């Protein structure tokens, strides 16, 4: 992968000047390269990773990973059914997988009932869906390569025998 892209992937706030210093380039060359990546759709958007567990916000919602078994449609394969699924606003990610299931989708809702309703009322009844397995995320330790540190851990020593 391009060095500029590697830097942006780790720190989207890095400026053209900072990247230019790191790579021994001119800021203008870096800026032009970034604009080209954006125009070509290589860079889709810039994102902030938020540790929602630290917000202690009851409205932060829940996230679930859902394994989906699919019967691919003749002449359309998995793409058509995947598109129908990823168009739902509850679905934040959708992947074609190898292994025991076909699609892995990430779903977000305000609470467990909303995610469960999505699976029961929208996803499972869809034509060509053979089965689903839902895994609710209880706690995140690391996301997108970043460790989500938890403050104020207990300072009590562990009991050992």
What are the SSEs and their pairings?
Elements: H1 3-10, H2 16-23, H3 27-39, E1 62-70, H4 77-86, E2 91-96, E3 103-109, H5 112-123, E4 129-136, E5 142-143, E6 146-147
Antiparallel strand pairs: 1-3, 1-4, 2-3, 5-6
Helix pairs in contact: 2-3
Question: Main attributes?
Answer:
single chain; 161 residues; alpha+beta; Alpha-Beta Plaits; 2 domains; 4-stranded antiparallel β-sheet; two-stranded antiparallel ribbon; 5 helices; 32% helix
Question: Could you describe the 3D structure shown?
Answer:
By secondary structure, the protein is an alpha+beta fold. It folds into 2 domains: 37 residues; 83 residues, Lrp/AsnC effector binding domain/regulation of amino acid metabolism (RAM) domain (Alpha-Beta Plaits, 2-Layer Sandwich), CATH 3.30.70.920. Helices cover 32% and strands 21% of the residues. It contains 5 helices and 6 strands. A hairpin with a 2-residue loop joins β5 and β6. The longest helix has 13 residues. The chain is flat and about 55 Å long. The mean pLDDT is 90.
């Amino acid at each position: 992968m391009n060095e500029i892209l590697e830097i942006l992937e780790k720190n989207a706030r890095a400026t053209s000047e900072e990247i230019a210093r790191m790579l021994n380039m001119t800021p203008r060359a870096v800026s032009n390269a970034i604009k080209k990546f954006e125009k070509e759709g290589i860079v889709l958007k810039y994102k902030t990773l938020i540790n929602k567990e630290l917000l202690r916000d009851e409205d932060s919602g829940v996230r679930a990973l859902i394994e989906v078994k699919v019967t691919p449609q003749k002449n359309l394969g998995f793409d058509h059914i995947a598109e129908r699924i990823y168009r739902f606003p509850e679905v934040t990610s959708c992947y074609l997988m190898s292994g025991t299931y076909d699609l892995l989708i990430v779903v977000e809702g305000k609470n467990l009932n909303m995610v469960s309703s999505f699976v029961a009322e929208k996803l499972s009844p869809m034509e060509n869906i053979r089965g689903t397995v839902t895994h609710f995320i209880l706690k995140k330790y690391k996301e997108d390569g970043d460790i989500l540190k938890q403050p104020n851990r207990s300072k009590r020593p562990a009991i050992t025998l």
